[in-house]
Amino acid sequence: MDPMAINIHSLTRDFGGVRALDSLSLEVPAGIIFGFLGPNGAGKTTTIRMLLGLLEPTAGRAEVLGYDTRTQADQIRSQVGALLEHNGIYEQMSAEDNLEFFGRVNLIATSERSRRIQELLTGMGLWERRKDLAGSWSRGMKQKLALARVLLHRPRLVLLDEPTAGLDVQAAVAVREHLSTLAEREGVTVFLTTHNMAEAEKICAQIAVIRQGRLVALGAPDELRAKTGRSQVVVSGRGFTAQALNLLRQSPEIESVETQNHQLVIQMHTDPDIPALIGLLAGERVQVTEVRQGKASLEETYLQLMEEER
Amino acid sequence: MNADIMTIMWKESKGLFKQGKSRSKSILVLLTPVLMFGIILPIQFREEWLDMGWSLAIALFTPLILIAPTICESFAGERERHTLETLLASRLPDRAILFGKMIVSIAYGWGMTVFLLLMSLVIVNVLMWAGKFQFYQVNIFLADIGLSLLFSGLMVTLGILISLRSATVQSAQQVLMMALVIPIFGLQAIVFLLPTFLPMENIREFLGRFDYDQILLIFLGVLLLADIGLLLAAMSRFKRSRLILN
User: Fold this and answer.
1) What is the ipTM of this complex?
2) Which among A55, A74, A85 has the least Cβ separation from residue B91?
3) Where would you tag: which of A116, A260, B40, B59 has the fewest CB atoms within 10 A of its CB?
């Protein structure tokens, strides 16, 4: 088996005079959850469409599960599950009929189809309402049904375009847990786009960030956060005077200082010298109760990457 | 390919009576030709219904009434409800999606036409029972069957081409009706204006060379050519790469 589920080589796509994807090169290892991040219009959906062979590249090439997207798109679509921008649920059909239809589409044998539909709907907590018209369901339930549809034929790779967008917290957690289980227990590769940085940080083993069709960062979440070179110190306490803050800002190791919810958030250029910081604050009569040191969050890293590219 | 076409047909038949969000609206659309062509007109025309060619109205108007909403729902509706892209992302071949949808719409329009021809036949026989069962004149019945099949094909293929260029079901239905009505008015205008440009004796003499059956055959031939042309255009237009870009 190819250790890479997806290989993208200098993939480029133009729409008229607009370059939606610009020489994107990526490798997605099999069996992991891979986050594909970027602002609206960055080229995420275009990439997914090209990986499914729905759009032809202007230049470059891509292989999905070892198949070329230009010449072997049929094989790709039969072995991949895709949840696109819209959930694709037939709202005038029951949940069971929706899965029955896609089971037939994927040529699953009748007995296996019924068993698999029951297994997935039960797993998603939807079995009792399988006869309801899907259109009468909440958004979260529809999204879970769409996920069940994606997994129906046991794909080796699933492509998910913002799978938790618009879901309430509980539904989003359920979807995330399901995706983690898929990757960990069944070895399914999950390629997902999301705007939710906390989600990406929590479940993705690797992340690629694109902007204006170009790759701007690639790596594990920890590596990406480390790449920004910024450490963060959060100080809890009382007496954060303007004078104390100004004194901190004069320090060359400190990039920025701000108060958030009665806490002092200090962004560092280098690794912080915590005793020196506490000493400086104590000298300004600040009552320090707690000091936490860490790297910038993925969200901050992402925002910094976006700013650097401007 | 055949299994894929059957799969699409299974899905389409599930949604046949649930066009838009209203099942009652779909049933109302279905009842209109049933009442008009299956009951009211046969009662009015009685035996003339079987041998004067009035039944040709069924062959033309039943597909018109039933197929226009069905085919637009099937194609423009799939796009409007954002289910088309998911369907295209599946392993189904383009042709299987196209033919599966086409077959269900044609079968619905044509099947209902045949059903109404038989229903009106029973009504006339019940009303005018003369000791033996009366049937349509054979040439008229064959014309009904052929005309309704070819006209259903025309409606479906034209409906597909229009739906693929329409953002909504409503706009597709409007354009489709216009595309069918404008040629009829155009034909009427030509017939009305023709005597001012050409001597009527020559036209009568020309048309007099053909009998009723020959004119019907010519008309069916023209419809068949139009069906083939539109089918080829629909097959060329219904391709993943083109559909995704729209």
Assistant:
1) 0.85
2) A74
3) A260
